[in-house]
Amino acid sequence: MMNLLSLCWKPFGHGGGDAVSAAGGREGKDGLLWFRDVGRYGSGEFSMAVVQANQVLEDQSQIESGPLGTFVGVYDGHGGPDASRYVCDNLFRNFQAASADSQGVVTPETIQTAFRRTEEGFTALVSDLWSTRPQVATTGTCCLVGVIFQQTLFVANLGDSRVVLGKKVGNTGGVAAIQLSTEHNANLEDIRQELKEMHPDDPQIVVLKHGVWRVKGIIQFCQNAY
């Protein structure tokens, strides 16, 4: 069986109260908080929590475990839940397919291929729905993925979310926070330069607005950089 554990957070499908999941650990709802305490996956244990900030939860997250190792995804949606839900439903499937093409070996290229196929799929969906649900075109999502494969951690980021590793500091009982990814945020000079190089004919690709650099003067993060 490919998935020992499959979880895609869609809290509005869950009832209230606490329950014990099939993967172990208590899960439940407390106000705007949905949580799962320590559960099991292929390489150890995990816990997850989602705090709702909007009337409709725009964010999604998932953990998958099986022969390809452990796959964790966090999708920070904006403008609505359509893009993040699509990514949650399709990114891992595309990752499985890309890994199968490479004889079951996980590489940076297989993860990048999964990202690209998912983006192409969502773009095609937007085109198909344009006449009936044009608002889907205004939604988007950041995409943060970690894959543990044969004792190697791969990290992929699209947008302005961040992966932070907590590492025990000797026998002190303390924990050090180690940043593992860099955001695609227009406030970073390298990202502004990258955007200008990608769009040399658009003088408004990055605009300083109220002291904050924004893509086209609208959003801070860039989703078309890998």
Automatic annotation (TrEMBL):
Its EC number is 3.1.3.16. Keywords: Hydrolase, Magnesium, Manganese, Metal-binding, Protein phosphatase. It comes from the Eukaryota. Residues 42-226 form the PPM-type phosphatase domain. Its cofactor is Mg(2+); Mn(2+). PROSITE patterns: PPM_1 (PS01032), PPM_2 (PS51746). Signal peptide: none annotated. It is an enzyme of class 3 (hydrolase). It holds the Pfam family PP2C. Belongs to the PP2C family. This is protein-serine/threonine phosphatase. It comes from Stylosanthes scabra.
